[in-house]
């Protein structure tokens, strides 16, 4: 344990051969970070500046991409600092705070995807009632709850973590995530039970709602004309791709990190990089290519840049 001014320090032990590839790590991570910020910010700016994109679906997409930026800002700056440092350390309170921000943004992702699924359901299955149901107040309430609910539930979890006794001070990862669980002297039953409840509330239930909603959309669309089926498939496919991508990321975070595994440090590092890269980078690519209106404005912007 490293102690400085009575502050408990935690070491990140997930880097593989950092002393040999320090500057390569830095260049790759920095490039990816800038790419993530630029891709997400570009789509958000397009939605902000074009009035024809000021519709509920595009507002939720913008919120999702802003969430991806916040998610990346939670991880990448500290990661870049650690790569250039001799010691990869963080104080335990700051580690808890990073974990809080990380999982808050992850929980918000599921709730935003659930709000988008409901928006698509009303748009396709109840088109005449759409303007009344998906009004500005409904949108604001959905956005506020999507960020507040995970923040509140995860804050409770990390308050519990702040009171546990630590016997280990080295994390197996490269940032503060579920691996904090392994630092405890004795695994807390309260934290484990609350973690399961929290996972059900902000991940499993929204996922089931999303799947139920899209199944309903596909069933209703099947009995409609070909144009309606085409519209349903075209608007729902990007959301389903994002859901699948994000669900795989959550599965990795829970299964690989929580359970004891014999993965080599290099393989674990590679899988971690994939999870923190694909999620925030694929979102703008999927929506930029698959959503016609966004794709159209993006092509105009690229032509102007040329």
Secondary-structure blueprint of this entry?
Layout: E1 2-4, E2 7-12, H1 18-49, H2 56-84, E3 89-91, H3 92-125, H4 130-133, H5 136-161, E4 170-171, H6 189-222, H7 226-258, H8 265-290, H9 292-305
What's the story with the biggest beta sheet?
A: 4 strands, mixed
Give the helix/strand class: mainly alpha
CA distance, first residue to last residue: 55 Å
* Basic shape: globular
Please tally the β strands and state the result.
4
**Ranges with pLDDT <50 over ≥5 residues?**
1-5
Spatial extent as radius of gyration: 21 Å
Number of helices: 9
Order of helices and strands: EEHHEHHHEHHHH
User: In percent terms, what proportion of residues is strand?
Assistant: under 5%
* Average pLDDT, all residues: 83
Q: Tell me roughly what share of residues is in helical segments.
A: over 70%
Compact description:
By secondary structure, the protein is mostly helical.
Describe what you observe in this structure.
The structure is a single chain. This protein has 306 residues and is mainly alpha-helical. Helix content is 76%, strand content 5%. It has nine helices and four strands. It is globular, with a radius of gyration of 21 Å.
What attributes does this structure have?
single chain, 306 residues, mainly alpha, 9 helices, 76% helix
């Amino acid at each position: 344990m490293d102690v400085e001014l009575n502050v408990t320090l935690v070491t990140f032990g997930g880097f593989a051969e950092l002393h040999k590839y320090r500057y390569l790590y830095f260049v790759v991570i920095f490039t990816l970070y800038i790419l993530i910020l630029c891709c997400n910010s570009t789509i958000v700016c397009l939605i902000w500046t074009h009035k024809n994109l000021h519709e509920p679906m595009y507002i939720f997409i913008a919120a999702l991409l802003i969430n991806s930026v916040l998610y990346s800002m939670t991880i990448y700056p500290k990661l870049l600092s650690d790569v250039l440092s001799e010691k990869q350390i963080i104080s335990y309170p700051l580690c808890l705070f990073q974990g809080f921000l990380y999982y808050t943004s992850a929980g918000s992702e599921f709730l935003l995807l659930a709000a988008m699924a409901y928006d698509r359901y009303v748009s396709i299955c109840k088109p005449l009632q759409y303007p009344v149901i998906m009004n500005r107040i409904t949108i604001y309430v959905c956005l506020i709850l999507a960020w507040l609910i995970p923040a509140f539930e995860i804050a409770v979890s990390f308050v519990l973590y702040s009171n546990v006794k630590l016997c280990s001070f080295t994390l197996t990862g490269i940032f503060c995530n579920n691996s904090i669980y392994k630092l405890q002297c004795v695994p807390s039953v309260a934290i484990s039970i609350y973690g399961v409840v929290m996972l059900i509330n902000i991940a499993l239930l929204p996922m089931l709602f999303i799947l139920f909603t899209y199944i309903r959309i596909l069933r209703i669309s099947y009995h409609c004309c070909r144009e309606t089926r085409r519209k349903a498939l075209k608007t729902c496919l990007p959301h389903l791709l994002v859901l699948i991508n994000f669900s795989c990321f959550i599965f990795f975070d829970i299964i690989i990190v929580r359970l004891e595994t014999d993965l080599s440090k290099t393989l674990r590092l590679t899988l971690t990089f994939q999870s923190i890269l694909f999620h925030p980078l694929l979102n703008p690519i999927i929506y930029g290519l698959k959503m016609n209106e966004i794709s159209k404005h993006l092509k105009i912007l690229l032509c102007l840049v040329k």
